[in-house]
Amino acid sequence: MGFRLGLRRGLLGRRVSPEVQNPNEVAVAVLLPRQAAVDSSRSLVILGRRRLEAAEQREREEEMPTLTKLYSLEDAARHNTADDCWVVVDGKIYDVTKYLDDHPGGADVLLEVTGKDAKEEFDDAGHSESAKELMQDYFIGELDPTPNIPEMEVFRKEQDVNFASKLMANAAQYWPIPATVVGISVVIAVLYARQKKVANTIQNAKSGSVNGCFVRGLALGNHGYASGGGMTQLSPLKYTRWGKAHPLSKQWGGLPLNFEQSPCSVVCAPTIDQMTSFFAHVHPSCHPGAWMCRNC
Ligand code: HEM
């Protein structure tokens, strides 16, 4: 059985004669049986190919973008117990639950820094390179740098609900204010309309053409007239036809007035004489503001 002397670089074997041309290269002489040498050289080729493939694979992996799980700081903060402990260092999240007991700095220091980025504390502890390599075993993800938009939407919805309920509560509490405003407005509108009606009444009375009556005068005053014999109280500021006047008024040639109720009444009488008679007989001195339309 013959032997072949094989020179292989980087192989561990029996050193025979290291006649090396390049001093940086390690030359190794391997004494192998012929067949074994053939097999060995085949397996060396396979080994070499595998290493090459592994290197290429590593290269490909480095080039490929990796998928990293993203968490919010709030997510990370929830893992803050000895049974479930996440720490954040420089934006990277590590699940150190299984490492707590082995941590040379103690479990407490890790538990104390949960819920925040502990880069400063980590750096201050002066961790070695091997500690930093070890960390990679516990890496689970990174902090999500994007703002949490869905939460903002939820917040806006809640705000709407709050706004509606606050509006309802305020309405229930402060309803008397708008009701008072509306009430005052109505009263002002009624007073205004009434005043306007009075003004129109006086105007119409002066013009002498109200409801087909002979409007002979306008009495201004607030002295009561209706005293005798169940005199009907007439509504203030209403025109009263002479024909409907109370008999007592007619008897006096007087007028269906309502001085008692109103400071301003329209006086209707068929003739100016009757009007004059009324004021002469009944209240000659109590109606200084009486106005007579002598032209009618
Ligand atoms: C996955 C995360 C971590 C790993 C793998 C880790 C690992 C280690 C290791 C191996 C040591 C021994 C010293 C060294 O080799 O540097 C150490 C020490 C220490 N670590 Fe950590 N550590 C981690 C996180 C932290 C954090 C977040 C803090 C923050 C307070 C911290 C505080 C310390 C302290 C105070 C010491 C002791 C230093 C001393 O006594 O000199 N470690 N850590």
Automatic annotation (TrEMBL):
<keyword id="KW-0349">Heme</keyword>
<keyword id="KW-0479">Metal-binding</keyword>
<dbReference type="GO" id="GO:0046872">
    <property type="term" value="F:metal ion binding"/>
</dbReference>
<feature type="transmembrane region" description="Helical">
    <location>
        <begin position="174"/>
        <end position="193"/>
    </location>
</feature>
<dbReference type="Pfam" id="PF00173">
    <property type="entry name" value="Cyt-b5"/>
</dbReference>
<dbReference type="InterPro" id="IPR050668">
    <property type="entry name" value="Cytochrome_b5"/>
</dbReference>
<comment type="similarity">
    <text>Belongs to the cytochrome b5 family.</text>
</comment>
<protein>
    <recommendedName>
        <fullName>Cytochrome b5 heme-binding domain-containing protein</fullName>
    </recommendedName>
</protein>
<dbReference type="GO" id="GO:0020037">
    <property type="term" value="F:heme binding"/>
</dbReference>
<keyword id="KW-0812">Transmembrane</keyword>
<dbReference type="InterPro" id="IPR001199">
    <property type="entry name" value="Cyt_B5-like_heme/steroid-bd"/>
</dbReference>
<feature type="domain" description="Cytochrome b5 heme-binding">
    <location>
        <begin position="68"/>
        <end position="144"/>
    </location>
</feature>
<keyword id="KW-0408">Iron</keyword>
<dbReference type="InterPro" id="IPR036400">
    <property type="entry name" value="Cyt_B5-like_heme/steroid_sf"/>
</dbReference>
<dbReference type="GO" id="GO:0016020">
    <property type="term" value="C:membrane"/>
</dbReference>
<dbReference type="InterPro" id="IPR018506">
    <property type="entry name" value="Cyt_B5_heme-BS"/>
</dbReference>
<keyword id="KW-1133">Transmembrane helix</keyword>
<keyword id="KW-0472">Membrane</keyword>
